[in-house]
Specification:
Radius of gyration: 17 Å
Order of helices and strands: HHHEEHH
Strand content: 5-15%
Helix content: 40-55%
Number of strands: 2
Shape: globular
Number of domains: 1
Largest sheet: 2 strands, antiparallel
Structural class: mainly alpha
Distance between the termini: 52 Å
Strand order of the largest sheet: 1-2
Amino acid sequence: MARVTSSEVLAIIDTTLTSDDIDPFITAANLVVTDMTADAGYGASLLKEIERWLAAHLAAIRDPRVKSESIEESSQAFHGLSGMGLEHTPYGQQVLVLDYKGFFAEAQNAKTRADVRAIA
């Protein structure tokens, strides 16, 4: 069962998405937070905040906000898109801050690591 409501997520994100549009992101965030932090020892209030910011991160990827536009050469810049993974949005960056034990950072880094072995 989700820890947050769509109105709680919408309170922190600038988006054109509706409450119904946010629900799938809440479901996904709930599944990830529950799975990744099962043994973390975080309190219910902190888990709720991690879930809220992760849902906002997922929604922001789906509905990025335009920061500026140019007509000549047709370019756009988007708010908060600054990296890959959770660093991609300010909402994901907040997940990394709230998860002070580093579960999300560790999982994110595990995806980018590679092992190189020589066979003699």
